[in-house]
């Protein structure tokens, strides 16, 4: 019967939608605090003593990491029943853990905003912040996160063992284990800064340049099967190749963070060689999506979820440009000695996180909306198109502005003034850098406007498409009766 709407049936997918909902709210918070920090770059006295730059920056990047982890867990709960053919084992515990995690995140954010700093004792590490960039959460929250993630892993493993085990599932199982295990490397405080940084990079680099990338490869595979009907055989063949290449270059590519932190000099060669190889798998992922797309186009297969597919395409290009090209620019030690600690990593970080992770996860949210309302097709609405355009133009604009700032900083502060204290200020106060910061702020506002469209679209597109689908089904049924 045409008019029968198959709304989401799996409890696992209902839980996924909860994760997506919190994720999108945190994405909004990320952008708002980014804007505050961007304003402070130009007007340093803005909110000084109330919400300092350091606090806004912490909230900006922690909100990013947390919303991405939420959306990643959500996406797994979404695809689990589809891939395994069964309801997720332990989904009730999963739901309970979701509420515990969300309450903990709320408390951590309130402490960041209201308490802000501690006396620098062990109590600060336990209750306020650990002070490690991106994973500043205090230790009690760290331990809570480990418990929640263990519950999540148990659910994934038990479900995969009981149900059908596809290639996508096998890769995800190994990958999630590694991803979760790496978090432990960022939990141990040592008083030696070199040692502390050494391990901290295991979390950040081995997440974004190895385990998260493998995760994306698996999820893109699932997404392509869902949206354009790509062949599972081809998708999974690519997946194995990509996984081998990502781990092959990403693990030792870690060396590009060991150039100047007091680690042995052999990291110069290792870091240079393997990190320079890192763009290769990203080209592979790029070719993968385009190839599947081309294969399907020949068969006139319709795209069942255009907004999701649109975001997958942004992901493919963004990952390649942001991580591959912008990462490669400063990865050789001969170049990095000048660019390290300038706006260069920030330019790269924005485009890479957006392209490689934000885009794919937003695409998964659109799959969630389609499934929630049981729609055959999810249309690309005007709001949805504004969202993808404004956000992408905004982030690209910020990246270009920061790249110009980085170029000037490298030339003036490092080249001309030899990395001195005066050189730092000479560069920061140059017209070029100030203008670039102005453009970053303007493009940040464009990004935020895009987010408003995205939020509205995610909230409304499902309902509207459902009404439209029912009306068409009714008309078809009516015509048949007549
Ligand atoms: C999606 C994948 C990637 C993401 C999300 C990402 C993100 C980032 C971020 C946020 C930073 C700044 C870290 C900090 O706060 O100190 C950074 C640093 C860096 N990234 Fe990436 N990155 C990715 C892939 C790559 C790749 C593939 C390369 C090399 C080809 C690369 C090269 C670098 C280098 C050299 C630095 C260090 C800059 C410095 O400290 O001097 N990244 N990355
Ligand atoms: C409203 C738009 C945004 C504005 C105005 C903004 C602004 C900022 C500012 C001012 C910083 C601090 C830079 C510093 O410490 O020198 C920052 C850091 C960062 N932002 Fe954003 N941001 C925005 C959106 C985003 C998005 C969409 C992403 C990724 C999805 C992102 C990822 C990051 C990362 C990874 C860092 C740390 C970079 C590093 O350590 O090098 N931001 N952002
Ligand atoms: Fe790295």
Structural descriptors:
482 residues, mainly alpha, disordered N terminus, binds protoporphyrin IX containing FE, binds fe (ii) ion
Bound molecules: protoporphyrin IX containing FE, fe (ii) ion
Report mean pLDDT, rounded to a whole number: 94
How many E strands? 0
Structural class: mainly alpha
Topology summary:
Layout: H1 11-42, H2 53-84, H3 91-114, H4 122-127, H5 139-162, H6 167-183, H7 193-228, H8 232-253, H9 266-277, H10 279-298, H11 306-328, H12 333-339, H13 344-372, H14 382-416, H15 421-428, H16 431-481
Helix pairs in contact: 1-2, 1-3, 1-13, 1-16, 2-3, 2-5, 2-13, 3-5, 5-6, 6-7, 7-8, 7-10, 7-11, 7-13, 8-9, 8-10, 10-11, 11-13, 11-14, 13-14, 13-16, 14-15, 14-16
This protein binds protoporphyrin IX containing FE (HEM) (2 copies) and fe (ii) ion.
One protoporphyrin IX containing FE is lined by residues 31, 34-35, 37-38, 41, 57, 60-61, 64, 345-346, 349-350, 353-354, 358, 395, 444, 447-448.
